[in-house]
Each structure stands twice: as C-alpha cells, then as structure tokens.
Amino acid sequence: MSIDIETARRVAKLARIRVEEERLPALAQELSGILTFMEQLNEVDVTGIEPMVSVTPMRLKRRADVVTDGNIQAQVLANAPDAREGFFAVPKVVE
C-alpha cells in the first residue's frame, strides 16, 4: 500500500504533529514502508501459536483480591492542603 502526500498530511494533522511541507514526501515514504512491513507480517502463518507476554515463561504471583484502605491514610493525607475527618477537603464548586 502506498501513502500519498495528502494522506501523510492528514495523518500528521490527526496525530497533532506539525510537519513542514518539505518533509511530507519523506513522511509519506516512511509510512508506506511501515505499511509494507505490516503486510509482510500478515503473510506469516501463526495458526496454533499462543500469544506471548514474555520471552521467558513466567507465572504471575497470585494473591487474594481483597479490598483494603492500604493502611497509609495518614501518609496520603500528610501533603493535603486541607483534610477533615480522614478525607481530602475541597471547596464547594456547585451551588
């Protein structure tokens, strides 16, 4: 698939990046190269291959999913400009 200069300009606008006019042809060529590489990857037969998370087999440590307050309320509120009754106090914004 080939990307033209107008498409490269639109991609840059959507990505919110500023690309000078003279750089647009090079950007279009780079994007075309990326899409060509992706097309090559699509040709690889991966049937029966499990997705990998890591190159080394690892088991994640399991722990009980228990809701706690972390037992660090005082540390969390230490830098608060205003704390009352164990909570952050903020000014009223809706009347």
Q: Any overview of this molecule?
A:
- The chain has a domain at 5-42: Histone, subunit A (Orthogonal Bundle), CATH 1.10.20.
- A two-stranded antiparallel sheet has the order 1-2.
- The model has no long low-confidence stretch (mean pLDDT 89).
- Helix 1 (5-14) packs across helix 2.
- It has helices spanning 5-14, 24-42, 73-77, and strands spanning 83-84, 87-88.
- Helices cover 36% and strands 4% of the residues.
- What's the CATH C level of the domain at 5-42? Mainly Alpha
| CATH architecture descriptor of the domain at 5-42 | Orthogonal Bundle
Number of helices: 3
Structural class by sheet pairing and helices = mainly alpha
Mean pLDDT: 89
Which stretches are poorly predicted, pLDDT < 50 over at least 5 residues?
A: none
Name the helicity range: 25-40%
Q: Based on CA inertia axes, which overall geometry fits? A: flat
Helix and strand run: HHHEE
How can the largest sheet be summarized?
A: 2 strands, antiparallel
Question: How many strand elements?
Answer: 2
Major beta sheet, strand line-up: 1-2
CATH-derived topology of the domain at 5-42: Histone, subunit A
End-to-end separation in angstroms reads 57 Å
User: Roughly what fraction of the amino acids lie in strands?
Assistant: under 5%
- Write down the Rg: 26 Å
GO molecular function: ATP binding; glutaminyl-tRNA synthase (glutamine-hydrolyzing) activity
EC number: 6.3.5.-
Enzyme class: ligase
Subunit structure: Heterotrimer of A, B and C subunits.
